[in-house]
Amino acid sequence: MLLALYVWQIAGRGISMIGTGEPVLIAIGAGVLVIPLLVIGLIAREYWLAATVQSMADTLFAEGNLPVDDLPRSPGGRIDRAAADEAFEPYRVAVEAAPEDWRAWYHLAFGYDASGDRRRARESLRKAATLYRTSPRP
After folding, report:
1. pLDDT by residue (tens digit) across 61-97?
2. What are 94-121's pLDDT values in tens digits?
3. Count of CB atoms situated within 10 Å of the CB of 89
4. Is 73:79 a contact under the CB 8 Å cutoff?
5. Strand partners, 73
6. 63: which residues sit within 8 A by CB, 6+ positions away?
7. Sign of the dihedral through C-alpha 61, 67, 73, 78
8. Do 32 and 9 form a contact (C-beta atoms < 8 A)?
9. Can you tell me the distance from the alpha carbon of 54 to that of 38, in angstroms, rounded to the nearest whole number?
10. Is this model's pTM higher than 0.70 or not?
């Protein structure tokens, strides 16, 4: 609901600017109309990734191969960095051995996440999702 209100408000402002006939305001108005499209596109992209990740998790759960978060933690709840780095290595080796296996990339993503590298975790999860979408289904 809030997204629809946002798009409506921004689009209305953009159309008003274009309607003035002033070249500068027309250019700004056109730019303003692009913003809601970008927002909707980014939200759709993230939703599609989330749906794919859930589907991958369901598949791994059914296979009994879902990653387990059993790394030691500090009293504050932070994962022990040394343990995370040690647990990461088998995931990296698995991806090197089977670079087209979405399962290996999925596990690598969670290895990166445990190690605190969120950017690489997201990249690995996107790679896993791409491979999953193109893999044959039983």
Report:
1. 999 988 887 778 878 888 877 878 788 888 999 999 9
2. 999 999 999 999 999 988 888 888 999 9
3. 10
4. yes
5. 79
6. none
7. negative
8. no
9. 24
10. yes
